[in-house]
Design brief:
Elements lengths: L1 H28 L3 H12 L4 H26 L5 H16 L7 H7 L6 H31 L2 H19 L1 H9 L2 H5 L12 H28 L6 H15 L6 H16 L6 H28 L10
Helix pairs in contact: 1-13, 2-13, 3-4, 3-6, 3-10, 4-5, 4-13, 5-6, 6-7, 6-10, 6-11, 7-8, 10-11, 10-13, 11-12, 12-13
Length: 311
Amino acid sequence: MNANRNILLALKVLLFLLMSWFIISQLFFKNDFNAQFTFFLQHLRGDRFYLFVLAVLLMPVNWGLETLKWKKLLRSQVPFSALLKSIVAGITVGFVTPGRSGEFIGRVLFLNDDNKSRVFYLSSIGGMAQTAASLIVGIPFVFIWRSDPFITEIVIGSAAVYLFAFLRFDILNRFFSSRPFLQKYGLIIDQNDLPGFDTQIWVLLLSFLRFAVYTFQYVLLLRFFGIGADMVTLFTHSVVYLLVQTFSPLMPLLDFSYRGASALYVFNGFTSNNVAILSAVMIVWLINLVIPAIAGYLFILKRKSINVPWA
């Protein structure tokens, strides 16, 4: 028990230090925060304030949909509120780990599930569904954006791979289960714990809805910051930008710089208002990641014990 408390204390301190450094470095060292904040305040006093409010209100919708996905995958009777804490804690740990790989650790903290391998695999399956949904939606928009068959074919191929991996994870699982090393340490999931076809359809549908929420947030904020392009153009570039984010770098400290550079590349096709583009990226980052990550840290801070993921 004392060992677990020490681990939890170390995790709390480490998370605080990493989150503080990451947020400060991204906002002030790698970003012109003062210019963007002034730009934000100017538009906040305008007649498009409601667009900003709508974008913020979509944040709980976003993570609520992810919680529903998680509940479907776990097939658990755990209350929605506990599963939401699990999701938000996952955001916190994933926020400061390469490729958001720490999400699994954060999710385990609020689940009384002794089968941690099961939690890990189901979390990975949910991620596959989200990536597959994003790529599927992106196929026509990528073609509209560039009219390049080669790029479109890459997206189609990637979508097919992720969709197959999601729908037929049982094939992959047979391979994993046959590996002696994974068997020895119990790092496998029983075939019966994998989601059935009905669950897969639900999870995929929820993933499509989450992607729509993300896209709509960018459209709302680009409008809020005065970019007056038509809706088709805004949706097209927002979808493409979100697809580009699928291939964000592994290291968290590079993440926001990559977001800004890729946003300018994608959106500069129809607007030269770089401050508006970068401001929209910053606001979405704050709404969907920073605020939930801070909330997750507060949940972790209140924990008195820890369900050690590697035990």
